[in-house]
């Protein structure tokens, strides 16, 4: 199977699809992005590594970062992280407070905002210099020392923080935030503001397709932990569209409102897409279509 | 009908009831209150004015203050206040976020915390010196120039503010808070920290039994506004126990977690009670019992 | 105060209001009603007794009957009826199943469908010939021996019973229906199909304004029971518009989707209205407006 | 990898685990089952085919049948089945009515009761002799002509049908049941009452691991349909424990309250377990543990 040829086909075919959705308006700074950007990158376990379209342009990874904070927390807390956050799909929007109230401050999973804020709190507690240490972790797993926060985006998220501030304070009211709310949110807004290219994103996720080992051979998580994190992405990675995504694509993946998606076929490849137009559930429309084409064309899904 | 005799009877009878509930633990400063305090005061339209028990001791009026902020906002915004807050009972706990999410940031009524925070936002916008002006209003309607905030209580509420901060930020995320969240919460915590005696509380509410006129004859609200505010207290004054309260007592009233209750029989009297032990719904157990005895004994309910 | 003059004024004024809403489409048989019917009837404790408009035409009282089934159950079970149904406003639509699930099969109050079905179950248990006995009760309190079920309407409700059948089965699954589901629904559909004129309806409710005594002097409920039932109507009588109704009208009342409303001023009068056009909450638009005019014009509200 | 050896190990190891849970009490007839039954069967694509423990005893497959009704409906309606039922995990209990109300009668997925009842309605519409035709389908895919309904169990489900009757009537009220409610429920209760051995169950699911082909080579679904059905099992197969199951086991699977589970590794094997003791979410405790051991020991998960 030649991935490069397939990717070209998918890229061309995707560009003929009807244009659907718009750039996220929830963070003012992100509305400045050109909605028609579109890039794909794939890296296989065997060493194929190539991109197409705007795959070398930086974009805001936003919620895709949640997989990486969970990975880092998982690496030093292991199963203890599930004492404060669940592993069930939420059936609600990514920023809903409803389930949090019914379930007394234990977020359904770490990929909705409430869960990611709890994970951020764990990192703030365990890391000496949380923001820098997390950035170093990202740089390490991706092999890209230039990956950085976009401070304008972080500030823009802070300026329009009210829903996330509501979630963080609500969590704190249940005792599920141990640090200062502001400090945790500051970390969270920075984590979401990280910018990567499709290539960097695919490289960052390489360890999840490679039984825990990065491209450079560092064992970030155990085999078992990687399986579990992949399982979690499969059931919870696309907010309340996770079922639909799994039904159509059949590869563990995570989306962000910056329009990025990272997905992977364990022991085979990682693929990342970027297209800023979001569907009504907040997931990249073109990105999801491209991934569906990929699994349909190649038959390469986990199911 | 001799109110004084009846009040004595009720007071004596109430003291023989089983002791139920505890002082609220939601605000640390309030836990210092002696749980066995118990006072009643009644002022009639005809001029009877007397108290019993600990009716001349100051206590934190907490949510009872919500009636007075609504009255003040009502006096200058009239029906426009209902553009941002409803008049329906909530069917949920006083600090629930669930309905707020389903109803897109419009609180069910101004007596649950979310609604009171929206009213606070209105006052912050319309008053030149919000805290002082509100205090002056209270002093004016009660005729007690010494009524004041308890700054320790206000600070204690600020220190444990997370649930209210969640509500305020959530409201702001829906655009239903126009001022700075911190400024609105600061006003709200001060409003709740006001201390009164049973006597002062009964006097403050006099205008609601007297077709809008205070004891000193100032027309605070119109007859029609007073009717509406009383109706609102009847359906929403006791959180998600409002139905039970109405069923048993049948007088418009409002409770607070400081253990105070103010209730009134339009064109007849205002009665206030204070007993800090709360039932599981957050309402003063002894206070509710005393009011039930009052309506049962006298047959004086609005129904 | 001359009620007759006022009623004439209200009737004339109401007829100039914009026409809003439509006849209920939930029961096919009811869609045949002329939407522009409009009648009012008032009976005072002092003996005034007159109607206007279509006040002598029969209409389907539908949910207004719920007050009368509660009254009958209350008369022989007293406070025990609250073991199986609550007294809190629901904050949800009249036929919602959501709260029922959260609250494990105990309906919020007897005026939403679920609660009324539980009351129907009580009557089926306690009455020898449930339908006939209930009809006899209605005839007795109203003094109208010709009041009857409309069997076509009952059948039409049965044919489109799915939501109510869902509620009844759901209640049964929680153990809160003791008889056969079909038998209880049959009673319920018949109770709702009762037809009265405005005059008969006002007469039926007379005992609720008269401390428990019917026009002919029969003590149906105790004074205390009547107060409680009135209180319940005030907080729960208009589904999730009860707060709005109480805010505007300030008289205990109950509406039905046939377009009827019965309301009362304790110790003063009962007023009934009929206009089949319903607002979006399922309450008679013109009826609510007429009652609001009545309280505004006369100042006669309980608050 | 020798599956037989592994299965023996798992079987022995599982038997030393603490005994947790009890037989389902929701259907009286099922309570008669010996709680300590335990069987496993595995069939691989390569032809290995063996069982252990009570793997040749019949048990009630209950909700496991939902996969087979979906497969049959999918085979003749293809993607059109998703017009009436979703593919998202529910986040609620299997028999919840709450989401159904919020989502206007479209069940979240076909593996919760509401969704399965809608699928049953489709089959009742499309099959000439629904019960017999479905039975024939099961016999065909399993290769076991003796598989049958247990009429006592079907009757027992009918006798205690209230929750399911509530769901079916509720669906009908939204127009999402086209046939008579009783007829649909009759089909549904029969489908759930089907009895199989672990061996028969594993054989029935063989086509899902074999790209749509049964053991005898009949193409039941297309490759693509099989992938989609497997994906759906992964996200929704274990009610509101689907996330936990996926996290721990990582194989598409479906459980039933009879204590059975069928799970599969696409292109590799199908494994079935039976142990009637259920955890609090209604899934077989020992079965889930056995499957977790299987994936842990062999590393054979899809992630």
TrEMBL record, chains A, B, C, D:
<dbReference type="GO" id="GO:0004359">
    <property type="term" value="F:glutaminase activity"/>
</dbReference>
<dbReference type="InterPro" id="IPR012338">
    <property type="entry name" value="Beta-lactam/transpept-like"/>
</dbReference>
<dbReference type="GO" id="GO:0006537">
    <property type="term" value="P:glutamate biosynthetic process"/>
</dbReference>
<feature type="binding site">
    <location>
        <position position="157"/>
    </location>
    <ligand>
        <name>substrate</name>
    </ligand>
</feature>
<dbReference type="Pfam" id="PF04960">
    <property type="entry name" value="Glutaminase"/>
</dbReference>
<dbReference type="InterPro" id="IPR015868">
    <property type="entry name" value="Glutaminase"/>
</dbReference>
<comment type="similarity">
    <text>Belongs to the glutaminase family.</text>
</comment>
<keyword id="KW-0007">Acetylation</keyword>
<feature type="binding site">
    <location>
        <position position="63"/>
    </location>
    <ligand>
        <name>substrate</name>
    </ligand>
</feature>
<feature type="binding site">
    <location>
        <position position="188"/>
    </location>
    <ligand>
        <name>substrate</name>
    </ligand>
</feature>
<dbReference type="GO" id="GO:0006543">
    <property type="term" value="P:L-glutamine catabolic process"/>
</dbReference>
<protein>
    <recommendedName>
        <fullName>Glutaminase</fullName>
        <ecNumber>3.5.1.2</ecNumber>
    </recommendedName>
</protein>
<feature type="binding site">
    <location>
        <position position="113"/>
    </location>
    <ligand>
        <name>substrate</name>
    </ligand>
</feature>
<keyword id="KW-0378">Hydrolase</keyword>
<feature type="binding site">
    <location>
        <position position="239"/>
    </location>
    <ligand>
        <name>substrate</name>
    </ligand>
</feature>
<comment type="subunit">
    <text>Homotetramer.</text>
</comment>
<feature type="binding site">
    <location>
        <position position="164"/>
    </location>
    <ligand>
        <name>substrate</name>
    </ligand>
</feature>
């Amino acid at each position: 199977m030649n991935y490069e040829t397939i990717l070209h086909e998918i890229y061309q075919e995707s560009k003929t699809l009807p244009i659907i959705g718009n750039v996220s308006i929830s963070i003012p700074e992100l509305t400045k992005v050109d909605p028609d950007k579109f890039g794909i990158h794939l890296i296989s376990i065997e060493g194929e590594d190539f991109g197409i379209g705007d795959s070398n342009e930086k974009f805001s990874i936003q919620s895709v970062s949640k997989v990486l904070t969970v990975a880092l927390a998982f690496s030093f807390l292991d199963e203890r992280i599930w004492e404060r956050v669940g592993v069930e799909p939420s059936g609600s929007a990514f920023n809903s407070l409803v389930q949090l109230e019914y379930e007394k401050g234990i977020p359904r999973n770490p990929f909705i905002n409430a869960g990611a804020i709890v994970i951020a709190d764990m990192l703030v507690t365990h890391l000496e210099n949380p923001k820098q240490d997390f950035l170093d972790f990202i740089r390490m797993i991706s092999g890209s020392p230039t990956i950085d926060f976009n401070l304008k985006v972080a500030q823009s998220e802070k300026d329009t923080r009210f829903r996330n501030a509501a979630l963080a304070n609500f969590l704190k009211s249940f005792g599920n935030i141990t640090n200062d709310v502001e400090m945790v949110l500051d970390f969270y807004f920075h984590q979401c503001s990280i910018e990567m290219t499709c290539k960097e994103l695919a490289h960052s996720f390489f360890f999840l397709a490679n039984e825990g080992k990065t491209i450079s051979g560092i064992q970030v998580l155990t085999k078992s932990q990687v399986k579990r994190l992949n399982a979690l992405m499969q059931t919870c990675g696309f907010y309340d569209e996770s079922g639909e995504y799994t039904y159509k694509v059949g590869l563990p993946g995570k989306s962000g409102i910056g329009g990025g998606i990272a997905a992977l076929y364990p022991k085979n490849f990682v693929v990342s897409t970027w297209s800023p137009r979001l569907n009504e559930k907040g997931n990249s429309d073109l990105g999801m279509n491209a991934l569906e084409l990929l699994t349909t064309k190649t038959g390469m899904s986990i199911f």
